Amino acid sequence: MAEHSTAYEVKFRLPRRRGSVPRARALLLSALGEWGIGQAAETAELVLSELVTNAMRVRVPRDRLVGVRIAWLPEDGLLRLEASDAGEGKPEVRAPGEDETGGRGLMLVEALTHRWGFEQRACGIGKTVWAELKAPDRVPERDGAEIAAAAIRPGQRVRVWGA
């Protein structure tokens, strides 16, 4: 699929750790709020969680990062979510048994999205699994406070610029 060029795009990489999935969700919610399309947030959060979780579970060296891309394509009315990993293989929807506790992630992605798929990464190592959700137009900005969140380690300092 052709790469879309848009000002509504966020890209980041995450370490393969438990806290990376909630961090991906937080960055998603921040972007959607900034773009004024928060009404797609709940479904997008679940879909991105499944994509990132699957990318984290791929068998690759522990130091490999998971790439995430979030893009709103207003001309197409779509929100595109991507998770890239360095692993081989082809993602497939499974039909797990009733007593299995996992294996339903791509079933959810398939059920909740407009379409989804995967492509080999341009660098030749790994793949990108993507999903597109119908994303309505922007909603008018509301009056209110902006809220930002950051994780700070002991010894780190934070500087804030602006009013």
Q: What can you tell me about this protein's structure?
A:
The chain is of the alpha+beta class and 163 residues long. The protein has a single domain (9-134), classed as Histidine kinase-like ATPase, C-terminal domain (Heat Shock Protein 90, 2-Layer Sandwich). The protein contains three helices and five strands, in the order E-H-H-E-E-H-E-E. The chain has a five-stranded antiparallel beta sheet, with helices on one face.
Q: CATH homologous superfamily - what is it?
A: Histidine kinase-like ATPase, C-terminal domain
C-alpha geometry = globular
What structural class should be given to the helix and strand makeup? Answer: alpha+beta
Please report the number of helical segments. 3
Helix and strand element order:
EHHEEHEE
What is the CA-based Rg, rounded?
17 Å
Mean pLDDT: 83
Through-space gap between termini: 42 Å
CATH architecture level-2 label:
2-Layer Sandwich
Strand composition percent: 15-25%
Low-confidence stretches: 1-5
Q: Could you name the CATH topology?
A: Heat Shock Protein 90
As laid out across the biggest beta sheet, the strand order is 1-2-3-5-4
Sheet with the most strands?
A: 5 strands, antiparallel
Number of domains: 1
Number of strands: 5
Oligomer: single chain
In short, what is this structure?
This protein is α+β, with helices and mostly antiparallel strands and 163 residues long.
